[in-house]
Amino acid sequence: MSERETTRTESIRVRDCDVCGAPVRHRTGCKLCKRDLCDSHVVYDPRDPGDYPDQFCGDCWNVGEPFRKRQIEEEQRHEEVLDTIDNEWRLAASR
Ligand SMILES: [Zn+2]
Ligand SMILES: [Zn+2]
Prior knowledge:
4 strands
């Protein structure tokens, strides 16, 4: 009986963080630029309280600062408009 050594090549899909090159274990990546991100480079949207908040890289998150401000302002304006309509309704009903 003869024995021989053989090498086996396995290909595994590994993703590296596009920022620091560390292996990415979870499916984390930027929602906007699609870069792969490790745990220390992924930014979770703190406004999303769910289990799967949107993920961003630091660059895209920082660029979004003025846009997030606008979103908050628009949401407030929206609430004010709804309140105004509610009040008009109340007035109309009390005539
Ligand atoms: Zn990283
Ligand atoms: Zn990004």
